[in-house]
Every structure is written in C-alpha cells, then in structure tokens.
Amino acid sequence: MLAVVYAFEKFRSYLIMNKSIVYTDHSPLKYLFAKKDAKARLLRWILLLQEFDFKVTDTRGAENYAADHLSRLENPYENVFDPKEINEAFPLETLNKIAHNDPSTPWYADLVNYHAQNFIIK
C-alpha cells in the first residue's frame, strides 16, 4: 500500500492526467475507497490517490512471476556492513587544479565556487 502511495506521489507529474493500472498482490487495495471508517494516515493516502485515474488489478504472488522470483533471491550483502568514514581532507593538488583553472577540473567546480563564495574563476 505504501509503495503505491509513494509511487503516485513521486511520479505525480507523469500520472496526474493519465490512466494507470496498478498490478499488485495486495488485494485489500481494491476495496480501499469503499472503506467507511479509517485511520488518519489511511485517509490521507486515500485523498492523495483520489486525484489519479487508476485501476487496481490483483495478481496473486504465484502469477506475478517477476516479483515472485525477485522476492526469493538471496541477498549476498545482507549481513555485510562496512561503514566508511568521510574523508574531509582535500589533497592540495585538487585544490590547486580548481584555483588555477586546470582543464581537467570537474565541470561542477564553477557551480561550487559560485555557491560557496559568489565568484567564478575565468
């Protein structure tokens, strides 16, 4: 349910005037708008979804082959978490390239300089 709400919210500009079909294995979603008494969060989601023209098609998990397959894959990185520290020290060579307008300077260096100090090196 939350995934559907998030998708419609995220792609609002693309979906607002278009007819959409939502394929889901969450069958209660079909009866969402007929529900009389609902909690505040659910009411907010209903109000958001009412702006869109969409139809909910229920596909059981066994019929939805792609989602069924992806849900059964093992995650090799499940228990591997390697926190990396943020390196806040910049090498002097990198700073000199930006200061001396080196052609290999990244394209965004002008934007960074402008937003940081309101100047562009030419």
What does this protein structure show overall?
This protein is an alpha+beta fold. The chain folds into two domains: 2-72; 87-122, no CATH class. The protein contains six helices and two strands. It has a two-stranded parallel sheet. Strand 1 (19-24), helix 3 and strand 2 (53-58) form a beta-alpha-beta unit. It is elongated, with a radius of gyration of 25 Å.
Quick summary of this structure?
GO terms for molecular function: endonuclease activity; hydrolase activity; RNA-directed DNA polymerase activity. By secondary structure, this protein is α+β, with helices and mostly antiparallel strands.
Give structural attributes:
122 residues; 2 domains; 6 helices; two-stranded parallel sheet; alpha+beta
| Residue fraction in strands | 5-15%
Radius of gyration in whole Å, from Cα? Answer: 25 Å
The total count of strands amounts to 2
Helix content class: 25-40%
Cα-to-Cα separation, first versus last residue: 52 Å
Give the H and E element order: HHEHEHHH
Topology:
Layout: H1 2-10, H2 12-15, E1 19-24, H3 40-49, E2 53-58, H4 65-72, H5 92-99, H6 109-117
Parallel strand pairs: 1-2
Pfam families: RT_RNaseH
GO molecular function: endonuclease activity; hydrolase activity; RNA-directed DNA polymerase activity
Keywords: Endonuclease, Hydrolase, Nuclease, Nucleotidyltransferase, RNA-directed DNA polymerase, Transferase
